[in-house]
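Consider the tokenized backbone below.
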């Protein structure tokens, strides 16, 4: 059997993992094995197409073949999928591809998705109304809730915001380091914006962390954000566990429910792949069916 030689660029990628990222020799061997295996499969299915130019459908075909015909375990497939995802992310960062088609994709994407926890519109409104604003500390906590729900920030993104990230002229907030070091600009809803501006005036800081701890004035951390959400949830008497991520899911769900385009939601939430944003389609029972029914809503009417 002829030995499959890897593309020179793939060899460069392996060298980067070994010399720059200092991956262990065992990991490099596993990674090389995965690249050879997938390259061999794709050479037959899509000859002449490098791995970083393949589509999501190409990789789904490979996964199905490995799962159904070769009977690979879910753990083995998940490991190989992680290897390829890392390669595609490197290719994207290097400018060899427009995007990583596997970003946000998991082996569960082809199965029925579980509904992410999100609040109803009434619960979200109740949560905001329950947040007091008599003291400076209460107003800061209320702003945390407003930014999580009104802008869809990840907890790390919220904690990482600086005063200078707020663009007063454009009514926007700049996220300089989102997931995967991706940057984005988020327009702030008017109701949230008015309270954000009032907070900036009251806080008085011109630079540094936007949200600070009460005692030492240090940057707020994920633990405190979680405590703020937990306390607000209790005040609003909302049942079940509500976390900062719940409010982010609620942001995406309510945008989808309002008919906002999927790609717009992906941009606002800092997603690179529609596979990430597509989960919000599954929290709207009946919406896909109702949408296709509109295609023939005028059937039978006289012209």
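A designed sequence for it:
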């Amino acid at each position: 059997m002829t030995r499959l030689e890897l593309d020179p660029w793939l060899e460069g990628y392996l060298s980067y993992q070994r010399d720059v990222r200092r991956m262990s020799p065992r990991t490099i061997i596993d990674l090389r094995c995965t690249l050879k295996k997938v390259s061999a499969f794709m050479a037959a299915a899509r000859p002449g197409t490098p791995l970083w130019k393949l589509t999501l459908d190409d990789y789904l075909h490979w996964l199905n073949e490995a799962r159904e015909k070769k009977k690979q375990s879910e753990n083995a497939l998940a490991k190989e999928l992680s290897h390829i995802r890392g390669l595609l992310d490197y290719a994207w960062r290097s400018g060899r591809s427009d995007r990583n088609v596997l970003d946000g994709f998991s082996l569960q994407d082809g199965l029925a998705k579980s509904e992410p926890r999100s609040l109803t519109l009434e619960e979200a409104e109740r949560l905001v109304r329950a947040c007091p604003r008599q003291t400076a500390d209460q107003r800061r906590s209320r702003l945390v809730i407003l930014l999580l729900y009104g802008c869809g920030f990840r907890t790390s993104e919220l904690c990482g915001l600086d005063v200078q990230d707020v663009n007063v002229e454009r009514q926007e907030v700049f996220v300089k380091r989102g997931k995967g070091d991706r940057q984005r600009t988020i327009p702030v809803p008017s109701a949230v914006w008015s309270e954000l501006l009032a907070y900036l005036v009251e806080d008085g800081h011109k630079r540094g962390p936007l949200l600070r701890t009460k005692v030492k004035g240090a940057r707020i951390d994920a633990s405190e954000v979680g405590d703020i959400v937990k306390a607000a949830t209790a005040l609003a008497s909302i049942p079940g566990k509500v976390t900062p991520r719940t409010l982010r899911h609620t942001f995406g769900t309510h945008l989808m429910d309002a008919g906002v385009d999927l790609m717009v939601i992906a941009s606002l939430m800092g997603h690179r792949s529609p596979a990430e944003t597509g989960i919000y389609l599954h929290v709207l029972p009946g919406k896909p069916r109702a949408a296709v029914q509109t295609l023939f809503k005028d059937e039978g009417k006289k012209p």
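Confidence is low (pLDDT under 50) at residues 109-113, 283-297, 299-303.
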